Amino acid sequence: MRKFILLYLIYITITSSYANAKLHHDKPKIRIFALAENGGGHALFDRAAKIWLNKLAEEKGFIIDYASDTKKINKEFLKQYQLFIQLDYPPYPWEKEAQEAFKDYIVNGKGGWIGFHHPTLLGVFDNYPMWQWYSDFMGKIEFKRHIPGGTFAKLNLEEKKHPVLKGLPASFTTRDEWYIYNRSPRPNVHVLASIDESTYNPGKDVMMGDHPVIWSNEQVKAKNIYIAMGHFPELLEDKNFTTLFRNSILWTLKH
């Protein structure tokens, strides 16, 4: 009898382990789509970000696909992705079908979104008209100018309890080529962090007064985060930035 019980327990252990392993194996992997520029002034940041992302993907078991243009983006294409990361890719030039698919993806919450730096280059550039919906998504703003060469500035966190800011100090200093807009996006978005403009001295023409740099638009169904930093590759060696990046990915993937 004892032998029978022992054999039964061994059988249960083996079959349970097999079932758990099969369940883990059969569980669909999270797929992330990353849109990144293939050249220009942000190429070095994009290259460093890809290296960092690939390491995270290996750690977490994610699958990440990259593209340097919007030609293959449509509604069917985006169905396979739980997260869309915009690595320094501007809101132009986008294929018309890609614009419609992206808007549907964001408005209807078909996945999460994280944008770095360049998505707020909103206006008329290279003979492309401003994408008005995208401007609204980013807080009804329009790009005015930037700080060439970048400057260090102190960021103050405004929502310390937000999951995206977990593990970050209440304030920290970092360098970037900060963008200046025609107005603050604050009335139209949920601001998580802003710049203390008294900590840099580039001139009054690049002062906004209220200068948000991390925010989320809660008027759409997609979990989304815009992060103004993203010009310099050294950011991927900054623990505060990589913590923010990692937190943003994990938060936007939770639906």
UniProtKB/TrEMBL annotation:
<dbReference type="Pfam" id="PF06283">
    <property type="entry name" value="ThuA"/>
</dbReference>
<feature type="domain" description="ThuA-like">
    <location>
        <begin position="41"/>
        <end position="252"/>
    </location>
</feature>
<keyword id="KW-0732">Signal</keyword>
<dbReference type="InterPro" id="IPR029010">
    <property type="entry name" value="ThuA-like"/>
</dbReference>
<dbReference type="InterPro" id="IPR029062">
    <property type="entry name" value="Class_I_gatase-like"/>
</dbReference>
<protein>
    <submittedName>
        <fullName>ThuA domain-containing protein</fullName>
    </submittedName>
</protein>
<feature type="signal peptide">
    <location>
        <begin position="1"/>
        <end position="21"/>
    </location>
</feature>
